[in-house]
Amino acid sequence: MACTCSHEPAPQKPNSKFRTALWIALFINLAMFFVELIGGAYAHSSALWADSLDFFGDSINYAVSLAVLGATLYWRATVALFKGAIMAIFGFVVIGKTIYAYTKGIPPEAITMGAIGILALIANVISALVLYAFRDGDSNMQSVWLCSRNDAIGNVAVIFAAIGVFGTGSMLPDIIVAVIMATLGLTGGYQVMKRALQERKQNMPTQHVLQ
Predict the structure, then answer these.
(1) Cβ atoms within 10 Å of 186's Cβ, excluding its own
(2) What's the gap between Cα 28 and its chain centre?
(3) What is the pLDDT of residues 59-102, one digit of tens each?
């Protein structure tokens, strides 16, 4: 006679404040994705276009995080692993787009780039402040905090790039910022995946068979 017993930790009770914060961040990021996607194409800005992809990736992350609230730590870590991979993939996409823009040699339109960069910074600061209280949570919470933090840093860089483009007429400031944002995506993705793998290993569901 066999009996199978699961010793996986019980699911965490959903945090209503974290859920509300995620919905706010999701709405903000979806709105800014469309704004930067259109604005980046209009201004020929690699940095804006890259940031729009980042907003889209963050929207996916927030939506997935909402879906797994209340799940066990093992499954939250599994989702965080997936989100970390998305962050890293977007880093590589940004690098590819930057190389393509460099070969075209068209400088971005600085005024539009700067204005959208300021709007995006305001949006990301709001998201970061809303999520700040959850920065030391599990890998799932950490991943959403890192997304907003990286975006806010990237937007400051976009604004400085717009100033640089306006002052020099060169596309190099835009290219440099795009590379910085790609690096943030790659390093942030690595941090999330590393912690998620640790949490999965520590909270692996176990089964014992009794004879």
Answers:
(1) 18
(2) 13
(3) 877 887 787 776 677 777 777 787 778 778 877 877 887 787 77
How would you label 22-56 residue by residue, b for 16+ Cβ within 10 Å and e otherwise?
beebbebbbebbebbbebbeebbbbbbbbbbbbbb
Which pair of structure tokens corresponds to residue 19? 């859920």
What's the residue count for the chain?
A: 211
Residues contacting residue 169 through CB under 8 Å, at least 6 positions apart = 107
Q: Which tokens hold the place of 155?
A: 């937007």
Q: What is the pLDDT of residue 137?
A: 61
Q: Which amino acid is at 46?
A: S
Considering Cα of 189, then 51, then 148, then 18, what sign does the dihedral take? negative
- Provide DSSP, 111-167: HHHHHHHHHHHHHHHHHHHHHGGGTTS-HHHHHHHHHHHHHHHHHHHHHHHHHHHHH
Which helix (H) or strand (E) is 109 found in, with range? none
The percentage of the chain sitting over the pLDDT mark of 70, rounded to a whole number, equals 81
CB 174 within 8 A of CB 205: no
- 23 neighbors 66 (Cβ within 8 angstroms): yes
- The reply to whether the predicted model has a pTM over 0.85 is no
Q: How would you classify residue 105: left for phi > 0, otherwise alpha for psi between -120 and 50, otherwise beta? A: left
